[in-house]
Amino acid sequence: MTASASLLTSIHDVSPKFESQVDRLADLVSRGMDAPRYAMLVVPDHWGDAPIVAGTPFASRLRAWSDAGVDMFVHGWFHLDRSEHEGAMARFKAKRMTAGEGEFLGLDHATARARMADGRKLIEDIIGRPAQGFIAPAWLYGEGARQALGEEGFALAEDHMRVWRPSDGAVLARGPVITWASRSRWRIASSLAVAAVARAALPRRPWMRLAVHPGDTNVPALLDSIASTIASLSRGARFARYRELVEPAAAA
After folding, report:
1. Which of 40, 60, 64, 167 has the maximum number of C-beta atoms within 10 A of its C-beta?
2. Is 60 exceeded by the pLDDT of residue 117?
3. Residues 64, 65, 71, 76: what is their CA dihedral angle, to the nearest 10 degrees?
4. pLDDT tens-digit profile of 148-194?
5. Using 50, 70 and 90 to split pLDDT, how confident is the model at 100?
6. Confidence check: pLDDT of 91 > 60
7. Percent residues over pLDDT 90 in the chain
8. Where are the alpha helices (DSSP H) in the chain?
9. Is the sign of the CA dihedral 70, 176, 171, 249 positive or negative?
10. 237, 37 Cβ separation under 8 angstroms
11. Nearest-10 Cα torsion for 123, 127, 130, 133
12. For residue 87, with 0-12 CB atoms within 10 Å meaning exposed, 13-18 middle and 19 or more buried, which class applies?
């Protein structure tokens, strides 16, 4: 691995519903970091029963994490997919690539933009600075969401295979994101196998990405795999922040 390689790490589904799990993940991913060099993907109201409210202790924690250097992304609004999907591919993605959580896969343009704008305002009012970008739940975007992304002026967006700038579509980082799944035995086994291959044989790129979820904390084997993968990918590399993709000076 070259000395210029950088590892981008993110904690998904940050919500008061999963506060203790987020704490465990933050402790895990920050081992070896001299400062918090990771991202949090914040869900304003997870599944409609965990709203983030300004002035609450959890909101204060979001502000403190952001002040410490954590990149904050808007991560949908509900993280729950209630859309009726048209087309075989959309139905496949909604059913097979996520457990009913691809919120922005089937939204029309107006609804997608409104949820993006509302989520952005909520999070930015709490942290007192711009959100770093928008990442759709399960990394799934429909046409309406893609159009809204460019209009809302987010600096960054991400899917399974790339990070890009929504304003002009410029790709800023390429390569698969390494992640884990905990919702079934075969998904656990599959993600453990993929992570093992990534540690041994994934082509090293200038920008590598790794993402963790609250559910990972329920499976000790996943936590061990995450720790091993971070240690492996960071060997000879450096921990980086997403903001460096648009603000090179932020690397300092």
Report:
1. 40
2. yes
3. -90
4. 999 999 999 999 999 999 999 999 999 999 999 998 999 999 999 99
5. low
6. no
7. 82
8. 19-29, 57-68, 88-96, 109-127, 143-152, 185-201, 220-234
9. positive
10. no
11. -50
12. exposed
Q: Rounded to an integer, what distance in angstroms lies between the CA atom of residue 77 and that of residue 177?
A: 22
How many whole angstroms separate alpha carbon 122 and alpha carbon 7?
Answer: 28
Residue with tokens 């924690």: 61
The C-alpha atoms of residue 152 and residue 133 are separated, in whole angstroms, by: 10
Average predicted confidence (pLDDT) for the chain: 91
Token pair for 218: 């329920």
**106-114 — which CB contacts under 8 Å span 24+ positions?**
106/81, 106/142, 107/83, 107/142, 107/144, 107/145, 108/144, 109/143, 109/144, 109/145, 109/147, 109/148, 110/144, 111/144, 112/142, 112/144, 112/145, 112/147, 112/148, 113/144, 113/147, 113/148, 113/151, 113/152
DSSP 51: B
In which element (H, E) is residue 240 found?
strand 238-240
The half-sphere exposure of 19 on its side-chain side, counting CA atoms within 13 A, is 13
Specify the pLDDT at position 115.
97
**Parallel, antiparallel, or unpaired for β 170-174 and 162-165?**
antiparallel
The amino acid at 201: A
DSSP assignment, residue 77?
S
Q: For residue 16, what are its two tokens?
A: 């008061």
CA–CA separation, 107 and 10 (whole Å):
25
pLDDT per residue as tens digits for the range 189-211: 999 999 999 999 888 889 999 99
